[in-house]
Design goal:
CATH topology of the largest domain: D-amino Acid Aminotransferase, Chain A, domain 1
Helix content: 25-40%
Strand content: 25-35%
Distance between the termini: 12 Å
Low-confidence stretches: none
Structural class: alpha+beta
Oligomer: single chain
CATH architecture of the largest domain: 2-Layer Sandwich
CATH class of the largest domain: Alpha Beta
Order of helices and strands: EHEEHEHHEHEEHEEEEHEEHH
Number of helices: 9
Strand order of the largest sheet: 11-10-9-12-13
């Protein structure tokens, strides 16, 4: 059994996965995508299965496409990574599956973005179609603030910044929930607590253990199934009236803080899942 650990930056998470593999007597080979060249004609790494852990969204997707085309089974798949990276795509699939999400409107011009904000009602959250760690996400209280943000985006050359997701501001109880899914299991979850409206731990949010009730567990599994992700971190809001709302899905989730505050051996759970899948 040999697992290829596909990565671009060796963080705590990747080292923890290697250590978990060692303890489980499973061979895991680090595969640093930035230090190798990959011919496209039938390349096949000497591995039974791969785990995609690249921090860069673009590298994660492109390298997964490369390995899959060469016959290597990769977790997560290129399709799942592509779907999860795109917030608009994610929300449309979740909605189609009947999964509750924050009310969101997409706008393709500055004028329609202004109209979308009025349609939802201030305050609104403006976010890019692609992004992570709460970056480039803004809380907007009025027309003038939104107009300034849109004017700044107009001068960014990347066309993705001309696509605006306008989302309702969900009045969370000072926290959100990161739920982890591994295969058909929901093994652990954390609260991300902050006095700031952005609760990501990458932005200073405090991680705390969170219970997983039946509703939350079923919702996480249903959301992962909608996108076809096998190993994921699912971000869930708690709305005071509507209950759980799925906001985003991360196909290459960080988990250092989760392990630290819960003591749960998530790296071992992931390795065990990969071994089972490779044997199928």
């Amino acid at each position: 059994m040999n697992i290829a650990l596909i990565y671009d930056i060796a963080r705590w998470e990747e080292r923890a996965l290697l250590e978990a593999s060692r303890k489980l007597s499973v061979n895991m080979t680090p595969l640093h995508v930035k230090s190798k060249v990959f011919p496209v004609e039938g390349l096949r790494e000497n591995a039974d299965i791969g785990l995609q852990r690249s921090l860069s969204h673009a590298l994660a997707l492109s390298s997964t496409v490369l390995f899959e085309s060469s016959g290597l089974r990769v977790v997560n798949t290129s399709k799942a990574i592509s779907l999860a990276q795109d917030k608009l795509w994610t929300l449309t699939l979740l909605s189609k599956a009947g999964i509750p999400t924050p009310k969101t409107v997409v706008a393709f011009s500055e004028q329609s973005a202004m109209e979308a904000a009025k349609m939802i009602g201030y305050p609104v959250v403006v976010k890019p179609v692609n992004g992570s760690w709460g970056k480039l996400v803004s809380l907007v209280e009025d027309d003038e603030t939104l107009r300034v943000i849109l004017e700044h985006k107009a001068f960014i050359s990347n066309p993705q910044f001309k696509i605006h997701l306008i989302q309702e501001y969900v009045r969370k109880p000072g926290r959100d929930i990161r739920v982890f899914v591994v295969g058909d299991e929901v093994p652990v979850a954390i609260y991300r607590v902050s006095s700031h409206w952005i609760t990501n731990t990458a932005r200073g949010g405090l991680a705390m253990p969170a219970p997983i009730d039946e509703e939350l567990g079923n919702l996480a599994l249903k959301a992962s199934e909608a996108l076809g992700v096998e190993v994921s971190g699912i971000d869930v809001f708690e709305d005071p009236e509507r209950g759980y709302l799925v906001n985003e899905i991360n196909a290459v989730p960080d988990f250092r803080n989760t392990v630290a505050v819960t003591g749960y051996d998530l790296p071992a759970k992931m390795v065990e899942y990969l071994v089972r899948e490779a044997k199928r």
